[in-house]
Amino acid sequence: MKRTSRALVAYSSSEDEAPADAPERKKKKLPSLASSLIVPIPVDDADLHQGRVRATPHVEGQYAAYVYIPLVVPPKTALYSLVDEVLDVTKEIVPTAHAIGEIASCSRNSGGLANSSRKARELHLSLTRPIFLRAHQREEFKQAIRLIALRQTPFQASFATFSELTNDERTRAFLSLEVGAGHHELRNLLSALSPTLQSLRQRDFYSQPRFHVSIAWALLDPDASVNEDPDTQGQLRAYEGVIAVEGTSGSNLTSSGDIGGSNKELQAKCFPRVPHFPSELIPTLNQRFGAGVSSAHTGGFGADTIAVKIGKDIFSWPFQGSHVILSQSL
Question: CA-to-CA distance for 214 and 252, rounded, in angstroms?
Fold first, then answer.
């Protein structure tokens, strides 16, 4: 039996039916997103950061972080008064210097380095290099720091001397207090942090650390490179990416990058730069304040908290090692 073939039905297209003189349809525009849903892209503006700019470019979903021991120095304490005096002397020798943590504006009415409001100072003793975490790594990192705090016993430390430090980009010089007593406990904290840093593919802290807190900084002139002056080459020595002035300590601090060439003249007027700290600064400070800063009464402090700053958020936990041991023995 033969199958009869069926003719295909031909459908006319919409183009055949549309009249030749029909107007072109306008495409509808999607409504714009609300401003609250738009995430602003960070813009490095040195004018908003005392002449500093970001050394590492911003990456969406990446958070800059570092671990440190906070040292809160209340007013009317010996260390607070000493730091005030040191900053006053530093301002006389280096007028362009800035106290750590203070915001200075480019105006004729800018105050000195000392904090006139008499608020407590918070100094940071870094335990890691600046590191960068992805969003999903933040909680894991926080839990690791919390576990270290549970195991670490509070301990006493003290400062020993003043140090001048220069970051590896040669963009800032730092005035720091170097830690003397407390190295053993601080090294133990570095060892406790190392496995977590390695698991996150972050670099360990420096192999020969010199622990410190910085109390002031100054912008360096990028054109005044020490490599161009043979007379200064012997006065500087490298410390794992950081340059330490001979006779002072190394540092783990990293800082801002260079400024754009088109804004260099304007930046120089608003944010003056120096080729380096004057050679007499550190000897003067150690001669006048060295005995005080190295005394237990003034330079001694208790390390009882560990903190981590991730992006703009700060988390801290007290050292509880002695309490954990006691509870386990009962």
Answer: 11
